[in-house]
Design a protein that fits this description.
Blueprint (H helix, E strand, L loop, with lengths): L5 H10 L9 H4 L2 H10 L9 H4 L2 H10 L2 H7 L9 H4 L2 H10 L5
Helix pairs in contact: 1-3, 3-5, 5-8
């Protein structure tokens, strides 16, 4: 099931961020939709478009939103979904390490 109605997707991802997986590709590339999903669940970054995984604001939002419980449950850090460029960015890595010392 692919969801394409923006208003509907915004409502759903605001409560269940990982539902972004079922949004259309266009909505997975919509910064407002993705930020709403991340506000609900940092791990929604996995389903963001490649372009938004390259967006510093989006990646930093996901990093700041994740909790230690999220990291433990997922056995990883949302940094793994960021673009290679941002995984090599000092500011982004420091933000990830501040949340999870094993992030890098």
């Amino acid at each position: 099931l692919i969801l394409a109605d923006r208003d509907t997707v915004l409502k759903i991802v605001s409560m269940h961020g990982r539902a972004l997986e079922h949004a259309s590709g266009q909505l997975q590339g919509d910064k407002e939709v993705v930020l709403a999903a991340i506000a609900s669940d940092a791990w929604a970054l996995e389903y963001a478009s490649t372009t938004l995984k390259e967006d510093r604001e989006v990646v930093l939002a996901a990093i700041s939103r994740q909790t230690l419980a999220d990291i433990t449950a997922n056995q990883d850090n949302v940094l793994c979904f960021a673009s290679q460029e941002l995984r090599n960015d000092k500011e982004v890595v420091l933000a990830a390490v501040a949340c999870d010392a094993w992030a890098f």
